[in-house]
Amino acid sequence: MTMRCQYPPGPPVITGYADGSEYRVIENTQGRLSCSVTGGNPAPTLTWNCINSGTLETTSDGTVTKTHVWTAQRNQDRTCTCRSFHYSGEKTVSIKIEVLYPPTTPTFRISSTQVNGTVKVIRNKQLSVSCISSGNPPPSYTWINADMATTNRQDLIVSSVQNNGTYTCNVSNSMNPSVGTAASGSNTSFIDVLILYPPSIPMFNYWNISGPNISTRELDVIRGDTFKVACTSSGEPAPAYYWDNQGHNRILTVTNITTDRSSICKARNTMQETVGQILTRSATASLKINVLYPPSVVTLKYHNGDSSLVSITTTLNIREGNPLMVTCSSVSKPPPSYTWTGTVSATSGTLKVDSAVRSHTGKITCNVENVMARTFANPDKTKVGKTSRGFNLQVLCNYFILAFYFNYCTFIL
Length: 413
Known about the structure:
With 413 residues, the protein is an all-beta fold. It has 4 domains: 7-100, Immunoglobulin-like (Sandwich); 107-196, Immunoglobulins (Immunoglobulin-like, Sandwich); 203-289, Immunoglobulin-like, CATH 2.60.40; 298-396, Immunoglobulins (Immunoglobulin-like, Sandwich), CATH 2.60.40. It has no helices and 36 strands. It has strands at 7-9, 13-14, 21-26, 30-41, 45-49, 54-60, 63-71, 78-86, 89-100, 107-110, 113-115, 118-122, 127-132, 140-145, 148-151, 155-158, 165-175, 183-196, 203-206, 218-222, 227-232, 240-243, 247-248, 251-254, 261-272, 278-292, 298-303, 309-311, 315-319, 324-330, 337-342, 350-353, 362-373, 382-396, 402-405, 408-411. The strands form 9 sheets. Strands 1, 2, 4, 6 and 7 form a 5-stranded antiparallel sheet that branches. The protein has a 5-stranded mixed sheet with strand order 12-18-17-14-15, with no helix packed on it. Strands 20-26-25-22-23 form a 5-stranded mixed sheet, with no helix packed on it. β10 and β11 (113-115) form a beta hairpin.
């Protein structure tokens, strides 16, 4: 007669781990847990409640072992339980699974808004960007930029941003599995910061934006000229241009100019931050245009002895021995120079003779000239303006008894 004694098995044990402890495994590597129970008649049944994957069961020397094997993936963290089933009762042992994985590619946030690529910030404003990455264990953060010291924190804060630049966020962690060799994980991402700033005070260039600079903001031209002036200002974004005489246009075009004028250019832009403010700003500058012109109408006036002025048309009669003073005048820009030619000559605007004699009789001409110098050649740099006007001078004789001899005057004493 054979007797079979029934008795319960010992408690299940996860090899190498206490009940409720933690098992760390790196993503994409193999996880392996063995659960064993010793003794028991009849032999107990083991099951794993874990990650759906393969199991292997072996029995040796009264010990039943069931091994659970799987490829670890992130977000599989859970508690796995090994159950021992026997007529005498059910017993369990558990272990916490933690999957380790390297940092994800960083993303960026300003306030609660996700940003990427280029971030626009108004100059002198604060830049505050958070670098976001997930990893297990959580990553450490390092910000790198050429214009600042390396910053070891998740949030980048620049109190007064000045320059365009690339800001790089590096993330890293160290993964230490329960079994096997530790591994390092890292990732990186960057944002480009574009500084927005208002238009500078406009500058002027002759003819086009590549032409010579009108540094004095003053331009000399000659009456009748046609020319162009470009307005140039730096700003981000690039400004729009408005001329008070011509509306929305960067280039001022002037055709057949006749009089002096001042033209005002306004440069304006709207700065819109990626996250934050929208500001519109403008700057203006005035261009003074001086119109040069040649002498035109020439006026001749005789200074009579009583200080009165007499306009000369074609002929001036004075008595011999009297003083002669004639003023020549003409309007031009720049003012003209004067020269007198004929029976009497001079190099000023006023012709003066202390005592007229008969040899002064004849044609006298006032020559008027100015030199008009453009700021820039169009096509020539300078141009000479000329005009003249003359009159006939008749010097009359003084006499007591006058006899005519071949048109000569003789005094009889």
